[in-house]
Each structure stands twice: as C-alpha cells, then as structure tokens.
Amino acid sequence: MAAGGNFRQIKPNVWKWDVAGKGYSLKKYDSYEVAAKVRRIHTELGKVGFPHILPVVGAADERTVIQPWLENARPADYSTRNGRARTLAVLKALHATSAVVDWQSVPGLRSYPLIAKWEDRLDRFRSRRKELEPYIGSSAFETTVFHAEEALKTIRKSYEPEEGCTLLHGDVVHHNFLKGKDGRYVLIDFDLACTGPPGTETALWMHRVLPHVGYDFDYLAGERPSLARLSRSSLDLILYPNEVLREWLYLLSLDEEKRPILAGRLIQYTEKALSRWIPLCFQVTQAGK
C-alpha cells in the first residue's frame, strides 16, 4: 500500500487515513499479540465468506491493522426493534462459523474467563465503597452487591464454559456494530475476541439491550423467541448486574472533575435497573419452564 496521504486522529490509537482517493482506518495496538489475533480472525472469517466484517488490507508494522473506512456509517441502535434484530442476527452468524472454523485451534484465542472476570469486577466494586457511596448511596450500593453475590452463587453452579464453544466478539457494545449506507451491518474492534459458548455472548448482548426495553425479558423474548430457549447456563448470566458494576467502575477511572456529570446519569440508570431487577430475575428463572 502506498505511503503518504492525510491522517486524522479519531481516538488515541485510531486514525483515519485518506490516500489516493480512498479512506482507511489505521489502528495501533499496545501489543503485537492482540494485533496478530485480530488479523488471524479476519483471515479466517474472510476464508469462509463471513459478510459482516471489514477486510484487513494492510499493516504499517506488527502492531497495526489497516481496514477500509466505512463512510457515513452509523452505530447500531439498541432502542429500536430493527436494531436489536439485526445485531442479534449478526452475532448468531458469527457464532455459527464454528461449523467451518475450529476456533479453539486458532493461535492467540483464549477461552472467556467469565466467572473470574465477574468475581474480580465485584471485588473491585466492593473495595471502592468509600469512593462510590457519595454518588450511588449506601442503599443502592448494598443492593447492587447483594444481587451480584446471589447471581454468582447461581452461575457457579450452572455455567458450562465449553457449551458449544465458538468465536466470541468479546465487546458487543452498540458502536461495535456499524451500519453502512447499503444497510449492511459489520462488526468492528475484535480486540477482546475469545472463545466460549455462544449463549454467553448472547446473554452479554442482552445486558446491553435490556435497559432499552425496561428490563423486560419477556418483552425481549417476545421479539426473539429463541432467547427464551437458551440454556440455563446462558440465561442465569442475566441475573448478574454487570452493566451497573461496570459503569460505576468506569466512573472511578475518570478525573474527579469529570465524575459528577456522568454520576448524575448513572444514578438514574442505577435506580431504574435496581427497581426492576427482582421482576427481571423472576422472568429469567421462569424462562424455559
């Protein structure tokens, strides 16, 4: 690929590169291993004709990945029925590639350490109580910890980490699904990709989507009946208040002067989630019965 052109920084490690009338995304990773993993995943998905990615077209060095820039792309909208349906379909298609790719044999792909990750997240949340309580309040803090502890008790008993093992994207936030001008959705940023049960990532997708449907699992399953047919190993993952914990820990990563603005939104978000958590847990435990 020819050098030169114009570079515009988008994020600390992402640039838009315009050269010879074309646009590219250039992403530089902290480690060679992650960059190599991302390239391998795109190579394997390209071999089987997976349509929901942008091809890797080059690398400036061992820690960079260059892909076409998707002009006028928009992130998925989880608040719409169509946005939910389309992104879930992309995820299912990704997971189905295990029928033609042995993902567990691809170098650099590790199994998803879900329980260890969630135990660590809860430990970090508890350990920073003094910093969090002025924002979240003692009652909401204790309620969040209670629901997380109870969920982990159930998950440790029911979780099957090798159930239908496949490729997991690893970060199903809405802006990692981009909708192009032609209406096609593509997945970007496979930095956290790993292997694990497809139902695990479907549950993580539901964690992201449920706030947009009032934490009403039955409503969501009414849209996509396959969700109610997930294994108990997968459904029990919904019981853990993952997004509440993650968002509050993210707040603590910010400079103190930036925290109050986000805290105002998080307080409302947490109040809504906790007010509906017990009904949500009841719906989830009844699913499949």
Automatic annotation (TrEMBL):
The keyword Thylakoid does not apply. Keywords: Transferase. SUPFAM superfamilies: Protein kinase-like (PK-like) (SSF56112). Signal peptide: none annotated. GO terms for molecular function: transferase activity. Pfam families: APH (PF01636). It comes from the Bacteria. Residues 16-203 form the Aminoglycoside phosphotransferase domain. The keyword Ion transport does not apply. Coiled coil: none annotated. This is Phosphotransferase enzyme family protein. It comes from Edaphobacillus lindanitolerans.
